[in-house]
């Protein structure tokens, strides 16, 4: 009888071990192939963008001129007492404040920490450009109760009078299908049934000479990544989304 129990326990243990190993292999291969099927986000030169310190990028419109504005910066909006709202500058010659990324996707052995399309991430402005009135340069999403819109800013609720606590969620970068280096942003809120695209809202009367980045269901803000300190992209690159 004891032999039968020992044999049964041994078989059960072996089955559990095999099942665990099979699940681990399945998880690894799923993660590996999903990672390799996802496209890397690239800058204007086609170089992959990586997360972390060391490389910073300006988010700029895919074409210059055409009255579509310039890069992203911080400005005063609504009842805020300091420049803590993310705006697109109306002047196309303004390159804006560089950003960096934090990868929130699982990292496997040998991973180069590239930013992949559709992967969850955090975005923040470079620390040296952060105003003293806020503690963090990390992008957050707030609801402006007066405008009844969700917008992107930095800092906490106390820095944004008349707005909500920061919404929990992550940003994701998606290609817009025009050219490989033209993208849009999405915000996927915790507990929300779907993600929202990052669009623009012109509230010039209350905003500091720019358009807020807001959440919407349509009309995404499209852009390219220009590596910090590089010159303005060539006419060929800037015109690429309109090429055949």
UniProtKB/TrEMBL annotation:
Quick check: keyword Transmembrane in the entry?
Answer: yes
Keywords (A to Z) from UniProt: Disulfide bond, Membrane, Protease inhibitor, Serine protease inhibitor, Transmembrane, Transmembrane helix
Sequence intervals crossing the membrane: 12-33
- What SUPFAM superfamilies does the annotation carry? STI-like
Give any Pfam family that matches: Kunitz_legume
Highest taxon of the lineage: Eukaryota
What PANTHER family does its record include?
Answer: KUNITZ FAMILY TRYPSIN AND PROTEASE INHIBITOR PROTEIN, KUNITZ TRYPSIN INHIBITOR 2
Full protein name: Uncharacterized protein
